[in-house]
Amino acid sequence: QVQVVESGGGLVQYGGSLRLSCAASGSITSIYDMGWFRQAPGKQRELVAMITLGGSTNYADSVKGRFTISRDNAKNTVYLQMNSLKPEDTAVYYCNADIVHFVRGAYSTRNTYWGQGTQVTVSS
Question: Which of helix, strand or coil describes residue 106?
Answer without folding.
Answer: coil
